[in-house]
């Protein structure tokens, strides 16, 4: 937003212009020069704002799911939220993280290439401390990981990837598989140094420790699904899936709905005196001819024609015709 000048500043500016201390043409030239932006080709912005928003939304969901997962597993206070989403060269990302840290290198079929989740050692050891019965105190001794600590951290990373898969389900079905556990980022060369990566930083608090978890997604890995990372595509897909889901749910509900079914064998008229003297074995003559089909009612509405019979020692009716809504009937 532009700064608002006070009345005194406006008077001083007008006075400087009138006395020649300031040149209006020079001010215009400076204003035009401000519109020129420097573009760094080493820091190419290859993700559109819409795509960045989609990635932010996905990883906000990832942070919520991971908070629930680790809260239940570690039985302590866990809080995660997206702190920033930036697209930077891979080399700049490597320089920004600690020299010794926890690096979860994984693949996510059908995407080609490797992705990375970097967990600050302070956070990693806080999770280990909780798993081993501690209060969740963080420390940093990554270079001296024991075999047991490596195994426990690997299990935590596997659980993290399961949550990562769930968070991405709304966009694409992926199958993340952990490829390696590294501690020195200098020895990790996933892509070329100038390759653009999007880094989603999750501000994390676990027990008494706090730090960052960084998700590094190279552009070359996400390139084939970039068209799906637009709000328009996402909304259209969601609308289609929701419509198909609603139709299928409606069908299943209708299939399980119970409908009263009855068959009218015919009608007859008798006097009250005849009714009072009815006994077992008496025969009542109906107005229905034996060669005429019976009307079958579903939910009180005539729907079918049928013929009476017997099945497994029980009285039954066989549907022979389907009534049309306009009153006629056709063969089924």
TrEMBL record:
Q: Out of the domains of life, which is the source? A: Bacteria
The signal sequence is none
Location(s), subcellular? Bacterial flagellum basal body; Cell membrane
Domain Flagellar motor switch protein FliN-like C-terminal, first and last residues per copy: 253-323
- Main subcellular localization, coarse class? other
Which keywords has UniProt assigned to this entry? Bacterial flagellum, Cell membrane, Cell projection, Chemotaxis, Cilium, Flagellar rotation, Flagellum, Membrane
Q: Which InterPro entries match?
A: CheC-like_sf, Flag_FliM, FliN-like_C, SpoA-like_sf
Question: What membrane topology is given?
Answer: Peripheral membrane protein
**Similarity-based family:** Belongs to the FliM family.
Q: What is this protein called?
A: Flagellar motor switch protein FliM
In its UniProt entry, the species of origin is given as Aliibacillus thermotolerans
- Organism classification: Bacteria, Bacillati, Bacillota, Bacilli, Bacillales
